[in-house]
Amino acid sequence: MNRITLTASALVLSSMAGAADGTHATHQKGAVRSPADPAKLASFDILAAHVHRTGRTVTFHMTTNGTAGADRPSPVGDLAGAPVYAYVWPTSLDPSSVGFEAGTGILALSATSHPDFDDTPLFDEDGDGDPANDGNRWHSHWVVLTPTEACGSGALGVRDIPEGQSPAMPATWPGLPIYIDSPGYTPLFDGPEIKLTVPMAASVTSEGLSYDGVTAALRVNANIHAPLLCVADVFDIASGDLSLPGKLK
Questions:
Q1: Is 234 helix (H, G, I), strand (E, B) or coil?
Q2: In degrees, to the nearest 5, what angle opens at C-alpha 38 toward C-alphas 60 and 235?
Q3: Range of the domain at 119
Q4: pTM
Q5: Does the residue 38 lie in any domain?
Q6: What is the pLDDT along the chain (249 residues), one digit of tens a residue?
Protein backbone atom coordinates (compact mmCIF):
# COMPACT_ATOMS: atom_id res chain seq x y z
CA MET A 1 0.00 0.00 0.00
CA ASN A 2 1.98 2.96 -1.28
CA ARG A 3 1.39 6.63 -0.65
CA ILE A 4 -0.32 8.10 -3.66
CA THR A 5 2.19 9.60 -6.07
CA LEU A 6 -0.13 10.77 -8.84
CA THR A 7 0.96 14.14 -10.18
CA ALA A 8 -1.39 16.84 -11.38
CA SER A 9 -0.89 15.67 -14.96
CA ALA A 10 -2.14 12.21 -13.96
CA LEU A 11 -5.32 13.78 -12.63
CA VAL A 12 -6.63 14.80 -16.05
CA LEU A 13 -10.35 14.06 -16.08
CA SER A 14 -10.52 11.89 -19.09
CA SER A 15 -19.11 2.91 -21.39
CA MET A 16 -21.26 2.22 -18.81
CA ALA A 17 -24.33 0.17 -19.76
CA GLY A 18 -27.44 0.42 -17.59
CA ALA A 19 -28.11 -2.53 -15.34
CA ALA A 20 -30.52 -3.71 -12.71
CA ASP A 21 -29.53 -2.99 -9.11
CA GLY A 22 -27.85 -5.88 -7.37
CA THR A 23 -25.89 -7.13 -10.40
CA HIS A 24 -22.18 -7.11 -9.65
CA ALA A 25 -20.14 -4.61 -11.65
CA THR A 26 -17.86 -7.33 -13.03
CA HIS A 27 -20.81 -8.58 -15.10
CA GLN A 28 -21.58 -5.22 -16.67
CA LYS A 29 -20.58 -4.42 -20.22
CA GLY A 30 -18.20 -1.48 -20.19
CA ALA A 31 -17.35 -1.67 -16.49
CA VAL A 32 -13.95 -0.32 -15.51
CA ARG A 33 -12.23 -3.59 -14.66
CA SER A 34 -9.12 -4.26 -12.61
CA PRO A 35 -7.24 -7.57 -12.27
CA ALA A 36 -7.26 -9.36 -8.94
CA ASP A 37 -4.10 -8.89 -6.88
CA PRO A 38 -3.56 -11.40 -4.02
CA ALA A 39 -1.04 -9.00 -2.46
CA LYS A 40 -3.81 -6.49 -1.73
CA LEU A 41 -6.37 -6.56 1.08
CA ALA A 42 -9.19 -8.48 -0.63
CA SER A 43 -12.03 -6.22 0.57
CA PHE A 44 -10.29 -3.25 -1.11
CA ASP A 45 -8.91 -5.08 -4.16
CA ILE A 46 -11.11 -3.65 -6.93
CA LEU A 47 -12.32 -5.97 -9.67
CA ALA A 48 -14.69 -3.50 -11.33
CA ALA A 49 -16.44 -0.16 -11.00
CA HIS A 50 -19.70 0.63 -12.76
CA VAL A 51 -22.18 3.51 -12.71
CA HIS A 52 -25.68 3.52 -14.20
CA ARG A 53 -28.68 5.81 -14.19
CA THR A 54 -32.37 5.13 -13.68
CA GLY A 55 -34.48 8.25 -14.07
CA ARG A 56 -33.29 10.86 -11.56
CA THR A 57 -31.07 8.51 -9.57
CA VAL A 58 -27.55 7.26 -10.30
CA THR A 59 -26.12 4.11 -8.71
CA PHE A 60 -22.38 3.78 -8.14
CA HIS A 61 -21.13 0.17 -7.89
CA MET A 62 -17.79 -1.31 -6.95
CA THR A 63 -16.97 -5.01 -6.85
CA THR A 64 -14.02 -6.29 -4.83
CA ASN A 65 -12.03 -9.49 -4.59
CA GLY A 66 -13.30 -10.09 -1.05
CA THR A 67 -16.24 -9.07 1.11
CA ALA A 68 -16.80 -5.35 0.61
CA GLY A 69 -16.99 -3.44 3.88
CA ALA A 70 -15.53 -6.27 5.94
CA ASP A 71 -12.44 -4.34 7.02
CA ARG A 72 -12.59 -1.10 9.01
CA PRO A 73 -9.81 0.94 10.60
CA SER A 74 -8.75 0.40 14.19
CA PRO A 75 -9.45 3.41 16.44
CA VAL A 76 -6.60 5.51 17.81
CA GLY A 77 -8.74 7.24 20.43
CA ASP A 78 -8.35 10.80 19.14
CA LEU A 79 -9.30 12.96 16.17
CA ALA A 80 -5.65 13.84 15.55
CA GLY A 81 -4.21 11.03 13.45
CA ALA A 82 -7.57 9.27 13.13
CA PRO A 83 -7.67 6.76 10.25
CA VAL A 84 -10.38 6.60 7.61
CA TYR A 85 -11.09 3.76 5.16
CA ALA A 86 -12.91 4.65 1.96
CA TYR A 87 -14.46 3.35 -1.23
CA VAL A 88 -14.29 6.30 -3.65
CA TRP A 89 -15.71 7.13 -7.07
CA PRO A 90 -13.82 10.17 -8.45
CA THR A 91 -15.86 11.94 -11.13
CA SER A 92 -15.49 14.60 -13.79
CA LEU A 93 -18.45 16.57 -12.41
CA ASP A 94 -17.85 20.13 -11.31
CA PRO A 95 -18.16 20.41 -7.51
CA SER A 96 -20.96 22.96 -8.01
CA SER A 97 -23.22 20.14 -9.28
CA VAL A 98 -23.79 19.07 -5.67
CA GLY A 99 -23.51 22.49 -4.00
CA PHE A 100 -19.79 23.19 -3.53
CA GLU A 101 -17.92 26.22 -4.84
CA ALA A 102 -17.37 25.77 -8.58
CA GLY A 103 -14.02 24.79 -10.06
CA THR A 104 -12.42 23.75 -6.79
CA GLY A 105 -11.13 20.24 -7.53
CA ILE A 106 -12.16 16.65 -8.23
CA LEU A 107 -15.67 15.84 -7.03
CA ALA A 108 -15.81 12.32 -5.60
CA LEU A 109 -18.51 10.20 -4.00
CA SER A 110 -17.28 8.05 -1.14
CA ALA A 111 -18.35 5.53 1.47
CA THR A 112 -16.21 5.80 4.60
CA SER A 113 -15.66 4.30 8.03
CA HIS A 114 -13.73 6.04 10.84
CA PRO A 115 -14.32 4.96 14.46
CA ASP A 116 -12.68 7.99 16.12
CA PHE A 117 -15.15 10.68 15.02
CA ASP A 118 -18.63 11.23 13.56
CA ASP A 119 -19.11 13.62 10.64
CA THR A 120 -22.79 12.97 9.90
CA PRO A 121 -24.47 15.12 12.58
CA LEU A 122 -27.88 15.02 10.89
CA PHE A 123 -28.13 11.23 10.85
CA ASP A 124 -28.32 8.44 13.43
CA GLU A 125 -26.92 5.52 11.45
CA ASP A 126 -27.18 2.94 14.23
CA GLY A 127 -30.63 4.06 15.44
CA ASP A 128 -29.64 4.38 19.11
CA GLY A 129 -30.89 7.94 19.51
CA ASP A 130 -27.42 9.51 19.40
CA PRO A 131 -26.43 10.96 15.99
CA ALA A 132 -22.84 11.63 17.15
CA ASN A 133 -21.49 8.10 17.69
CA ASP A 134 -21.82 6.45 14.28
CA GLY A 135 -18.48 7.14 12.57
CA ASN A 136 -17.54 3.47 12.45
CA ARG A 137 -20.67 2.69 10.42
CA TRP A 138 -20.16 2.89 6.67
CA HIS A 139 -21.71 6.14 5.47
CA SER A 140 -21.58 8.43 2.44
CA HIS A 141 -19.88 11.71 1.55
CA TRP A 142 -19.35 13.95 -1.39
CA VAL A 143 -15.82 15.40 -1.15
CA VAL A 144 -13.63 17.65 -3.27
CA LEU A 145 -10.10 16.29 -3.74
CA THR A 146 -7.06 18.36 -4.71
CA PRO A 147 -3.30 17.74 -4.96
CA THR A 148 -2.06 18.76 -1.50
CA GLU A 149 1.69 19.05 -1.05
CA ALA A 150 1.27 19.28 2.73
CA CYS A 151 0.00 15.69 2.58
CA GLY A 152 3.18 14.55 0.82
CA SER A 153 4.75 14.95 -2.59
CA GLY A 154 2.08 14.43 -5.25
CA ALA A 155 -0.49 13.40 -2.63
CA LEU A 156 -4.19 14.16 -2.61
CA GLY A 157 -6.21 15.62 0.22
CA VAL A 158 -9.76 16.78 0.84
CA ARG A 159 -9.72 20.49 0.00
CA ASP A 160 -9.42 22.72 3.05
CA ILE A 161 -11.49 25.82 3.78
CA PRO A 162 -8.97 28.51 4.77
CA GLU A 163 -9.72 30.42 7.93
CA GLY A 164 -11.88 33.47 7.24
CA GLN A 165 -13.28 32.13 3.95
CA SER A 166 -16.90 31.02 3.41
CA PRO A 167 -17.13 29.22 0.06
CA ALA A 168 -20.40 27.71 -1.15
CA MET A 169 -21.18 24.43 0.62
CA PRO A 170 -24.05 21.92 0.27
CA ALA A 171 -26.96 22.23 2.70
CA THR A 172 -25.82 19.05 4.48
CA TRP A 173 -22.20 20.20 4.99
CA PRO A 174 -21.28 18.95 8.50
CA GLY A 175 -19.42 22.12 9.50
CA LEU A 176 -15.87 20.78 9.18
CA PRO A 177 -13.31 23.17 7.61
CA ILE A 178 -13.05 21.04 4.46
CA TYR A 179 -15.02 20.50 1.26
CA ILE A 180 -17.17 17.62 2.49
CA ASP A 181 -20.89 16.90 2.36
CA SER A 182 -22.75 14.38 4.54
CA PRO A 183 -25.92 13.76 2.50
CA GLY A 184 -27.10 10.63 4.33
CA TYR A 185 -27.17 8.20 1.38
CA THR A 186 -26.80 4.65 2.73
CA PRO A 187 -24.10 2.38 1.26
CA LEU A 188 -25.43 -1.10 0.57
CA PHE A 189 -23.23 -4.21 0.70
CA ASP A 190 -23.81 -7.49 -1.10
CA GLY A 191 -20.90 -9.88 -0.67
CA PRO A 192 -18.11 -8.50 -2.85
CA GLU A 193 -20.08 -5.43 -3.93
CA ILE A 194 -20.77 -2.02 -2.47
CA LYS A 195 -23.24 0.36 -4.09
CA LEU A 196 -24.49 3.87 -3.42
CA THR A 197 -27.58 5.38 -5.06
CA VAL A 198 -27.81 9.17 -5.21
CA PRO A 199 -30.12 11.74 -6.81
CA MET A 200 -28.62 13.51 -9.79
CA ALA A 201 -29.73 16.58 -11.69
CA ALA A 202 -31.29 15.98 -15.09
CA SER A 203 -28.53 18.15 -16.61
CA VAL A 204 -25.96 15.43 -15.83
CA THR A 205 -25.78 13.43 -19.07
CA SER A 206 -23.51 10.78 -20.54
CA GLU A 207 -21.25 13.64 -21.66
CA GLY A 208 -21.28 15.08 -18.13
CA LEU A 209 -20.05 12.22 -15.95
CA SER A 210 -16.85 10.25 -16.29
CA TYR A 211 -15.62 8.27 -13.30
CA ASP A 212 -13.18 5.80 -11.80
CA GLY A 213 -13.04 3.58 -8.72
CA VAL A 214 -10.54 3.92 -5.87
CA THR A 215 -10.07 2.30 -2.47
CA ALA A 216 -7.94 4.20 -0.01
CA ALA A 217 -6.97 5.01 3.56
CA LEU A 218 -7.03 8.63 4.68
CA ARG A 219 -5.77 10.17 7.90
CA VAL A 220 -6.66 13.25 9.90
CA ASN A 221 -3.65 15.56 10.20
CA ALA A 222 -2.03 15.52 13.65
CA ASN A 223 -2.47 19.31 13.65
CA ILE A 224 -6.22 18.83 12.95
CA HIS A 225 -6.19 21.42 10.14
CA ALA A 226 -4.25 22.84 7.18
CA PRO A 227 -4.72 20.25 5.79
CA LEU A 228 -7.35 18.37 7.78
CA LEU A 229 -7.67 15.13 5.83
CA CYS A 230 -5.03 13.55 3.59
CA VAL A 231 -5.00 10.44 1.43
CA ALA A 232 -2.41 8.33 3.27
CA ASP A 233 -2.50 5.08 1.26
CA VAL A 234 -4.10 4.01 -2.00
CA PHE A 235 -5.16 0.37 -1.92
CA ASP A 236 -6.30 0.14 -5.54
CA ILE A 237 -7.38 2.21 -8.56
CA ALA A 238 -9.76 0.54 -11.01
CA SER A 239 -8.22 2.15 -14.10
CA GLY A 240 -4.69 1.93 -12.72
CA ASP A 241 -3.98 5.59 -13.46
CA LEU A 242 -7.01 7.61 -12.31
CA SER A 243 -7.88 8.42 -15.92
CA LEU A 244 -11.65 8.27 -15.25
CA PRO A 245 -12.40 6.02 -18.25
CA GLY A 246 -15.94 5.11 -17.18
CA LYS A 247 -18.85 7.04 -18.66
CA LEU A 248 -22.43 7.26 -17.49
CA LYS A 249 -24.96 6.09 -20.08
A1: strand
A2: 45
A3: 8-32+43-247
A4: 0.88
A5: no
A6: 333 333 333 333 232 333 333 456 666 777 899 999 999 999 999 999 999 999 999 999 999 999 999 999 999 999 999 999 999 999 999 999 999 999 999 999 999 999 999 999 999 999 999 999 999 999 999 999 999 999 998 899 999 999 999 999 999 999 999 999 999 999 999 999 999 999 998 878 777 799 999 999 999 998 878 899 999 999 999 999 999 999 987
